[in-house]
Amino acid sequence: GAPKDIRLTLAGPLAADNAGGFTAGDLAINCGGVPATAKVWRKTGENSPTQFNMESNAIQPRQALSAWGVTLPAGIPADKLAKASLAVSGTVDDTSITVQKLSASLDDSRLTGHGVMERADAARGKWELSIDRLDCDAYFPLNPTTGPPSQDERRKTLDFKRLRDLALDAKVHFGWLKKGNVTFDASTVTVLAKGGLFTFRQESPRFYGGRLFTEMRGDARDTALKTIIELKLEGIEIARFLRDWVDGDTLASGT
To answer: Residues with Cβ < 8 Å from 95, sequence gap 6 or more?
Structure first.
């Protein structure tokens, strides 16, 4: 569906002093049907940052996304997008938002981490996150291919502005990850981007009985995108990997 305007309401007490300090405690927040509680305060002092914490333990993702006009991908199992929670705390100053503690959950997945973003833009900053397990295929089910892209789609000009605007240093640790029917046991994804240059790297010391290293380096500063891709697979059970990759049982043995 088309995106909808999301109504945000806040209610709660506010106390302020003449030296610039204030406290807004026990704030009740409702963001398009998602309830949360929060506290925002700043100590007296010229250079004191604004501090905050927010918590929501009763998020129903399906209802919230529907209320926000978001269409869910077809084929998502009924037990997915059933429950979620969020707890975040940090500080705000004139140039950045520092997230000192982030904890979130979606169904059976748990995320923790911390980071800092420039000018409230999550794509410009530094993040370190940990996710215990994530089944991407459950939330974005695999669909049979519909054939090669049309000629018009192949001729479509790529917009590199977003890549050039990125200033990101992010690292995500996965305890278990499934994507494209391929599973990664203990995997670290690193994303570095600045000024049109970017690097995507994924490493796994336990990948189908062996090791995985893949890295893509790119340059989007010119009119054409330039990329270099490196892939290393060491000691993996190739038959099991390929069987999962093609989502079939075409190989019975091999290394």
So the answer is: 118, 119
Q: Where are the beta strands (DSSP E) in the chain?
A: 8-11, 14-16, 22-31, 34-42, 50-59, 84-92, 96-106, 109-118, 121-131, 134-135, 167-179, 182-194, 197-207, 210-219, 226-234
Give the span between the Cα atoms of 212 and 241, in whole angstroms. Answer: 12
The full DSSP string for 91-157 is EE-SSEEEEEEEEEEETTEEEEEEEEEETTEEEEEEEEEEES-EEHHHHS-------SPPHHHHHPP
Q: How far is CA 142 from the centre of its chain?
A: 20
Which ranges of 156-235 would DSSP assign to H, the alpha helix?
A: 161-165
pLDDT by 10s per residue, the chain, length 255: 555 778 888 898 889 888 778 899 889 999 888 999 999 999 887 778 999 999 998 899 999 998 888 888 888 998 999 999 999 999 998 889 999 999 999 999 999 999 999 877 888 999 999 999 999 999 988 765 555 666 776 667 777 888 888 899 999 999 999 998 999 999 999 999 999 999 999 999 999 999 999 999 999 998 888 999 999 999 999 999 999 888 633 344 333
